[in-house]
Amino acid sequence: MNRARVLSHLLSRVPPRAPRATTQALALGGSRCKASAPPAPNALAAEPFLNGSSSNYVEEMYNAWLQDPKSVHQSWDTFFRNTSSGATPGQAYTAPPSLAEPSPHHVPLSSIAPAITPAISDTQLTDSVIDDHLAVQGIIRAYQIRGHSIAKIDPLGISTVDSSESRELVVRNYMNRFNESDMERSFKLPMSTFVGLNEKTLPLKEIIKRLEDAYCRSIGVEFMFINSLEQCNWIRQKFETPGIMAMNQQDKRLLLARLTRSHGFEGFLARKFSSEKRFGLEGCEILIPAMKQVIDRSTSLGVESFVMGMPHRGRLNVLSNVCRKPLEHIFTQFAGLDTGDEGSGDVKYHLGTYQERLNRVTNKNIRLAIVANPSHLEAVDPVVQGKTRAEQFYHGDSEGNKVLSILLHGDAAFSGQGIVYETFHLSELPEYTTHGTIHIVVNNQIGFTTDPRMSRSSPYCTDVARVVNAPIFHVNADDPEAVMHVCNVASDWRHTFHKDVVIDLVCYRRNGHNEIDEPMFTQPLMYNRIRKLKPVLELYAEKLIKEGVVTAEEVKEVKDKYEKILEEAFTSAKSETRVFNKHWIDSPWSGFFEGKDPLKATPTGIHEDTITHICKRFASAPPNASDFVIHRGLQRILSSRMEMIQARTVDWAMGEAVAFGSLLKEGIHVRLSGQDVERGTFSHRHHILHHQKMTNDTPVDKSQYNSLANLYPDQAPYTVCNSSLSEYAVLGFELGFSMTNPNALVLWEAQFGDFNNTAQCIIDQFISSGQSKWIRQTGLVLMLPHGLEGMGPEHSSARLERFLQMTSDDPDVLPAFSSDFAIRQLSDINWIVANCSTPANLFHILRRQIALPFRKPLILMTPKSLLRHPDAKSSFDEMVEGTEFQRIIPEKGIAAENPAGVKRLIFCSGKVYYDLIAARREAGIEDKVAITRVEQIAPFPYDLVKQECDKYPDADLVWSQEEHKNMGSWSYIQPRIATALNHERHISYAGRPVSASPATGNKKTHTREVKQLLEDSLAL
């Protein structure tokens, strides 16, 4: 036939409607055919597979076949060949091969009807076979998707995760279709399962048995929501492959030994310190072998450093048996001894550690750190991630192959605290990823006294992890070997895909919330069952004895050996007279403090050539990039920067850039993070320039230029990164980052100052008190835009008063003045709070963070309107060598020339200074009123304030602020000025009255308040 006749002929032979089963087969992917295979010829009516009409589709296929018969699926090739040979419609279509072995009642079609060609098929028979095969595929898929919901993962047997409904969902695909005799029929295994080894077919009952073994025993696997076929297949293979979970005898003996130590440690503490809270691990003793297995497996894959965070439960056991912290150090924490070094310390189950030791299983040296954290259970999560990221950064571990974070969680906290969700959403952001975290949930199936029905709306406490497609492995904590397999898979997953993974250890809490709590008050059913359960050590020992792996004598020998170790350490600890907080440092800075004068800082001024060079780079387009198109608005900004260079001045953005650039030149890594920090919330920074054109219809937003990263050929790296819309997690992350390396400037900028509200837990529990509790220093900088600009109560105040209230200096004690007074104050205080009014002072205080011989957090109120205020500029002369940060900036005008004639001395801080000098100038009283700026509010500059007051002996003293009287600095300033002056002079307040709201939302009211503030401040 010619082409036209063949096409017409074959179109007339296309069956008008595809059989239901065949269409269903196409929708589910069929058998082992390629996923991209087109539908078989008799499925042309399946509309989802056709674009346009059947005729157009067939014509396209036929044209392709004429060019190359191999370009179409084999079924189409057969169809076209038969049609071209003149076969009738029924003869042209060739049925696919049988998907199941024939049943005893199946009579081949060829035996009852003569075949014109081998292509003849029995449609009814084919549909039945295909339906059976599809039902088997449905069974397999149901186990993969929902098998976890009927897995025996609860050692108490009280789990109610959709059990009755889920069981029906799993089995309904075959119970109604297959009878008992069908269980012996063999079915071809699809590519979507690994239940076969080398078998291509298996009896249905064997398929179901292997699926039960994989998904419905002690492990429940949630993974089918992952949108990667490669990852799903990887997980299927790890659980479906027969025999993959088997352990050899040596590994079983090691597991028993580790379980013995975990159980023995808790029992020893219970006997020796029966009335002490310790938040023991009873009911989940398998956690210790689990963590050690993760560490062993990861170490064998190349990991050298582990950064861990965890809540109370089991912490002492983890410190002892995972990190190998000396037992003597742990036991002295129970003794109530005086501290032998700095810091107020913390309760024992909040403390961290850092240990370097040999992993005897892999014979490799490893580093282990547990980050100290408070009772805010999940608050440590982002801190660990930041610390891990920093270790990876400074070790050049760009893929996370050498540094791994492990986070332990409680079930109620994991589902209940939003910081878990925020931390998960950092997991794959370019500047925040740690390339996969292994999460281990100690699932007590209860919070304090609240059971899951009252504490979450989701079936599992781990459902939050699904938002980042993390696989979740639920496992019965009373099946130690199943736990070990899950730990191996989780470690391999993280190494292979560099993504988060969750191990849900479903266990119980043998005691109450703590050892002196009575759980029967609220959970009588649960605790009646718990009291009848044997400990997991006993269960596993009996199992291994029965298997012949160990003897009862060997079990006792291992137990007695560890008991002896504990007793010896306990005896040794009795000789200690003090407890040392330094033993619990989780972030040691080796060599940082040695060989330094603890009260001497390096100068912060720099050479003018350096200032000029940095400013020019900051004001320039990318060098040698003539095709890099800059936004016209940015071109004007760059031009204005060049003009400032000519005038030897800097504005706020340039002062900050010179601080960063000069530190980068000195080899100090600078990291600036937060919402919109690349541009700056107020469009003042522009550290990242974006190419404005499109190339080949493709947006090139990724074509960027970072001027501060290109200042010098051998400079330190500069990281500036926009964060997710999170304060709690991102600030915690940057805190963790700053703890790792003292020779780095790490800054977090809030989009508006009051956004620190949602990060208050990190501020209160870690930043303000971290050094006192855990001897953990940090030089982290918080930049908080602050100032009442008439824009309403939101985003006006950074709540300066809160930071000052948490400052650890005594308002009633005047420190002794000395030549090193300023730095001694910094050394003694918990953090620094400042509100700078000039770019030069910003430059110096940022550089001072690195110049100090120690590290302190810096809380920096930053401006909004001052970013472009014509008077808020500084000369190069204020930044060159020989200059330094000015804790106060005294009056330098005509009032200072005749102090005896000054009637009023105003102290103020920040933006209000520029309003005051403008109002003073307008009133013509510049010789009568002196205005002094307090740039460093805490620690309070007693010496300089007293010096200023002594200079103007006849002046009334006024504190002027734009915040309301019950906010801002007044409550902090007033008693300290009184102390500085020995209560001999009075200082009055000028500013807004008390208020519940930080600022008015009415523009007219705001203007009236500013006018009144200035009048009250300047009134003589």
TrEMBL record:
GO CC terms: mitochondrion; oxoglutarate dehydrogenase complex
InterPro entries: 2-oxogl_dehyd_N, 2oxoglutarate_DH_E1, DH_E1, KGD_C_sf, ODO-1/KGD_C, THDP-binding, Transketolase-like_Pyr-bd
Protein name: 2-oxoglutarate dehydrogenase, mitochondrial
Domain Transketolase-like pyrimidine-binding intervals: 650-869
Subcellular location: Mitochondrion
Function: The 2-oxoglutarate dehydrogenase complex catalyzes the overall conversion of 2-oxoglutarate to succinyl-CoA and CO(2). It contains multiple copies of three enzymatic components: 2-oxoglutarate dehydrogenase (E1), dihydrolipoamide succinyltransferase (E2) and lipoamide dehydrogenase (E3).
GO terms (BP aspect): glycolytic process; tricarboxylic acid cycle
Enzyme Commission code: 1.2.4.2
UniProt similarity note: Belongs to the alpha-ketoglutarate dehydrogenase family.
Enzyme class name: oxidoreductase
Stretches for region Disordered: 87-106
Primary localisation category: mitochondrion
Gene3D superfamilies cross-referenced by the UniProt entry: 3.40.50.12470, 3.40.50.970, Multifunctional 2-oxoglutarate metabolism enzyme, C-terminal domain, TPP helical domain
SMART domains: Transket_pyr (SM00861)
